[in-house]
Hints:
By secondary structure, the chain is an alpha/beta fold.
Amino acid sequence: MNNFIIKNAKYLVTVNTKNEILTGATIVVTDGKIAAINPPNLPDYEVFDGSSHLIAPGLINTHTHLAMALLRGWAEGVNLDGFLERVWAAEGAIMDGETSALGTELGAGEALLSGTTTTLDMYLNPAQTHKAAVQVGLRHIAGPIFFDFPGLDGLEWPERIAFGEKWPAIHREIGGAFTPLFFMPHSVYTDSEEHLIEIAVLAKKHGARIHLHVSETEAENKQSHEMHGRTPTKVLLDAGILDAPTTYGHGVHLSDEDISISIKAGASVGHCPGSNLKLGSGIADLKKYQDLGLITGLGTDGCSSSNDLDMWSVLRLAAHMVALKHSPVDVDLVKIFRAATIDGAKAVGLEDRIGSIEVGKEADLIAIDLSALHLTPVHNVLALLVFAAGRSDVSDVWVAGNRVVRNRSLVNVDVADLKARIDIRMKVLEELK
């Protein structure tokens, strides 16, 4: 079970502590874990010929809303406020549990085909979305959503807390590739300080991590000062949220004090350059965060704002934004790629399991076919990954040793059937156009 060999990889990008890139390397995977790299003898396992491929850790998307793949292109030419107004109306019309699962199936399939093996996914109806993503084969991090108001799922606050109490058991029952327990309040502008305190207590009780939107826009920071007299980060600190390991979605406008507080608390950022640019939210200072030691992963946000779940375009944008905010000399390709892999794993509490190719870790691996003209020649492997490779180059994907993409096709999804079900459901939105 989950036993195979990747033999003679043209390049093996380990993302280990030495950032080694090996050539002609062989990986042995036993029971879903990396058992050996370049061993003297090979077991009798199924062999994947890596001689024309680059093998890398699966990419980690540290902030997204997968089911929003159903609303791709729905809210164009708007800022964040306009985006929320238009998207929430559409979600209110269609996003019941069944449709949330359908959208997540679509998003999970898109993510895997592009080489993303893990997603930190904040969305409604997490039991249904998590089950759908697990069936597709994604390492899917989900958790209960918290709003002060009933919201699109119609839950009152006591019902949200009650569901949070049940979530650990639901999470265990669904199973799939291991993911940490998370609770997901939406933001400081949709969750009162009193309610954030309740979530902090709940997280501590269950040993859970926390994910929420933080300082995505300057307007959010201004509103936080008007409502609370301090930044969102300080609100989270005072509410006890930062007592739990916390991942910020976006974190564009963090003050120096916010950064210091976050580093001390062990918080991290899911940096979403594509969404931030499209909505005009601003440019997060990735170089500054990394230089100061603030753990920063990369994310796509949801398809309503970013239009796709392509982490390769995120890698490019992240690098370009460092060059724009600082200079091209300051673009460190090692740090950029680590943000999409091992630093992303750190941001979601999985660095002991995934994010690099090392003996003992789970086999979340991607194979990149190097035969395309745009990947020829190879002078700099990391430059190839950050600036040239794309989702169409990903040929095969493994999650916890399970092959979930084979020869550019999803193993666990009937794509024609999925598209047919989506077409039927999307007819409901016609009247809102």
